[in-house]
Design goal:
632 residues, eight-stranded antiparallel barrel, 12 helices, 16% helix, elongated
């Protein structure tokens, strides 16, 4: 491998010489290689015995048999990585996609950083660590910076002038005409590099509330043309997505997954953890996407604009080598990925006063209301839920919902006869004495003359209700069929995201949205949803209702405008609010039964959409509390 890389360096030097001599046409490296004398090659490599072998290995790497002249780049050691990355790279601004920094990297890892908009310069070093055996930890890179006084705001340059280092993971890839390098800082994202030096969005203000972070850095350089690799057909694989071109094709690099059983850092959830590393050959392949496959959500908005997704996905291809399925792999923490729940171990003690999950015991008195006196049973529902059926009295009980991704109890319902369809808890219904309620507490059936003792779904929209009557001295049992149309299913998916804050739940929620949706709103959201809403701001309490607006993308903004009754125009009122993707802002409004007097204004961060929604009753069906706002 060492010989192969040294020979590659020889070729690079010869190409440089050709350019210096004013060659107008590019010559192939193979042709020039035959013009190098044996003595020159020995002098360059420092290895008399291996010069011929090096040239032969290079020939094999540049034109592997049967692969159309594709150049393979194989890296398996720290030294090989440093040799390959030596050269000039440009860092991409992740928000705009423009070049931000140029870095010159030497064979020894020395770096010269030049900020392009003002030509400010600093120096430093980069190194790579692959000393750990596969399965122990991700590969690591270390960056050091020094002499960066010119990069600092004038007012801060003297006070903050210092040397520092930071570390993280890296990915390297070689495509048909470009090489890529990705560095990701591990930690809280509060180093000089992530706050300022390599942060195009930095304001230069070091007050905490003004700080921004950019801990992920993408670099590229043009190569001499490495040939187009053929996509794999009828295949399934994990891949790092480097780029999305204007035509919709994706530049993918297959990755190797290493997994182990782990426990989440802040909960008692057992899950399969993993990290992804390059194969020895770091080649990138361009894949077309099968017609009809949605890739619009393959990255966050700020990356979609720049065209660099920089995420791990699982892909499937069809017989033509086109992508037919894809799904994003959940991140857990610090570039460790979440491959799903491990089968949980749980039980209830003999006295029914404690629940044990993965070796951790939850006492009944700590998670249930005071009236609850025993755990009668527990049932796992799907992959994510465990429901404890608890006793209060012979007629009513409590259901405690343990959410596995959360590692704790998420909410509770008081009632009896809880039932649902399949593993979908959003369809859940339950009874309380003479009434039947849906998951959100909306009453869907009532019989004041009977007590309800059983519920069951006969089909998706029909509920069988078993009732018990006393007529005189006789008991009467009757089954009634009730039409039931589920409402607010997306609100349940959003609740799951609020509790877990995982990509998987966010995707499930977004899959509920119709085409053209720009936001999700809830009118008077249930208490369980309000409990988990983060970063919300309530306007002064001038209204009788609450309007919660969920942000689809980072940078979107919303505000409320009044409708002038004398004109068709709108009068701006209040400030614009911006929240991170998935969070909500809560307005105090009055939702009229008739004509709207206010509108909600939703503007996307790229200003391509500006959507107005009249604040009015969502539907004539009073139980429905949520809907998607769609651009018409």
């Amino acid at each position: 491998m060492k010989n192969r890389l040294l020979a590659l360096l020889l070729i690079g030097c010869m190409v440089f010489s050709l350019a210096a001599c004013g060659e107008e046409e590019k010559s192939s490296s193979k042709k020039k290689k035959t013009e190098v004398t044996e003595e020159e090659e020995k002098e360059e490599t420092g290895d008399d015995e291996s010069a011929d072998d090096a040239a032969q290995e290079t020939e094999e790497v540049e034109a592997p048999a049967g692969d159309g002249g594709v150049v393979e780049v194989a890296l398996s050691s720290d030294k090989e990585i440093l040799s390959w990355i030596a050269g000039d790279w440009k860092m991409v601004d992740p928000w705009s996609g423009d070049d931000y920094v140029e870095v010159e990297i030497g064979q020894d890892g020395s770096c010269k950083w030049t900020r392009l908009y003002d030509q400010a310069v600093c120096s430093g070093e980069i190194s790579f660590d692959k000393i750990y055996p596969a399965g122990e930890k991700p590969d690591e890179c270390i960056l050091s910076f020094k002499d960066f006084k010119d990069w600092m705001p004038q007012a801060d340059a003297d006070g903050y002038f210092m040397d520092f280092s930071t570390s993280g993971i890296f990915h390297l890839g070689s495509g048909a005409d470009r090489d890529y390098m990705y560095l990701s800082e591990i930690g809280n994202g509060d180093t000089w590099a992530s706050m300022f030096l390599l942060n195009p969005n930095s304001s230069g203000n070091y007050e905490m509330e003004e700080m921004t972070w950019n801990p992920q850095w993408l670099f590229y350089r043009e190569n001499e043309g490495h040939g187009d690799r053929q996509p794999e057909k009828d295949a399934s694989f994990y891949a790092w997505v480097w780029e999305k071109d204007p035509a919709g094709s994706l530049l993918l690099q297959k990755m190797q997954l290493t997994t182990w059983d782990d426990m989440e850092e802040y909960t008692d959830r057992a899950y399969e953890a993993g990290y992804f590393s390059e194969l020895e050959d770091i080649g990138i392949t361009r894949y077309e996407v099968q017609t009809g496959v949605d890739i619009s959500r393959i990255e966050d908005r700020f990356r979609e604009d720049s065209g660099y997704p920089l995420e791990i996905y699982e892909f499937k291809t069809d017989g033509e080598g086109k992508i037919c399925e894809l799904s994003r792999v959940n991140q857990s923490y610090y570039n460790i990925y979440d491959l799903g729940n491990r089968e949980p171990e749980y039980s209830v003690n003999e006295t029914g006063t404690a629940f044990t999950y993965n070796g951790v015991t939850f006492e009944l008195q700590d998670f249930a209301g005071a009236a609850v006196n025993a755990i009668m049973d527990c049932t796992q529902v799907g992959e994510d839920w465990i429901i404890l059926d608890c006793h209060i009295n012979p007629n009513i009980g409590a259901y405690e919902f343990f959410y596995i991704p959360y590692g704790n109890f998420a909410f509770e319902l008081y009632g009896a006869n809880l039932t649902w369809q399949g593993t979908d808890l959003s369809t859940a219904v339950y009874s309380a004495y003479t009434e039947v309620y849906d998951f959100w507490g909306n009453m869907i059936y009532s019989d004041p003359t009977a007590e309800i003792y059983g519920l069951a779904f006969t089909d998706e929209n029909t509920l069988s209700v078993d009732t018990w009557h006393i007529e005189g001295e006789e008991e009467k049992f009757e089954t009634v069929e009730v039409e039931y149309e589920q409402v607010d299913r997306p609100m349940f998916q959003y609740l799951c995201y609020l509790i877990s804050r995982r990509d998987r739940e966010w995707r499930a929620f977004r899959e509920e949205a119709p085409e053209g949706a720009v936001s999700f709103i809830m009118i008077n959201p249930p208490e369980v949803v309000e409990t988990y809403l983060l970063e919300n701001v309530e306007e002064p309490a001038e209204g009788l209702d609450e309007l919660a607006v969920v942000f689809f993308e980072n940078g979107d903004k919303v505000h409320i405008e009044a409708i002038n009754p004398d004109t068709t125009g709108r009068v701006a009122s209040g400030d614009y609010y911006m929240r991170g993707r998935g969070n909500a802002v809560v307005f105090s409004v009055t939702v009229p039964e008739g004509m709207a007097t206010q509108v909600l204004d939703i503007t996307t961060d790229d200003n391509t959409k500006d959507v107005y929604w009249p604040i009015e009753t969502i539907t004539g069906r009073t139980p429905q509390r949520s809907t998607f706002i769609v651009e018409e």
